[in-house]
């Protein structure tokens, strides 16, 4: 699990869907937040996914 936070932007990346959902539920119950879905670009960084090989590259 990777959680990147910068001012008011947060990016969560992880291999385990159940743990990811638990973290997301806790964060949204603790803080006001909006789930913007999957991203391909954040804070000047392009994110590339290779779903067939389960890889994420920055």
Describe the structure.
By secondary structure, this protein is an alpha+beta fold. It has one domain. It has one helix spanning 17-30; strands at residues 2-6, 9-13, 41-42, 45-46, 48-50, 55-57. The protein has a two-stranded antiparallel ribbon.
Poorly predicted runs: none
Structural class: alpha+beta
Question: For the report, how would you describe the main beta sheet?
Answer: 2 strands, antiparallel
Query: What is the radius of gyration computed over CA atoms, rounded to a whole number of angstroms?
Result: 12 Å
Oligomer: single chain
* Number of spatially distinct domains: 1
Strand content: 25-35%
**Tally of strands:** 6
Q: How confident overall, as mean pLDDT?
A: 86
Task: Please render the helix and strand layout as text.
Elements: E1 2-6, E2 9-13, H1 17-30, E3 41-42, E4 45-46, E5 48-50, E6 55-57
Antiparallel strand pairs: 1-2, 3-4, 5-6
Features:
two-stranded antiparallel sheet; alpha+beta; 58 residues; globular; 6 strands
């Amino acid at each position: 699990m990777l959680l990147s936070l910068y001012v008011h932007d947060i990016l969560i990346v992880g291999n385990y869907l159940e743990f990811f959902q638990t973290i997301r539920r806790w964060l949204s119950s603790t803080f006001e937040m909006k789930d913007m879905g999957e991203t391909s670009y954040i804070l000047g960084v392009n994110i590339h996914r290779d779903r067939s090989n389960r890889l994420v590259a920055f």
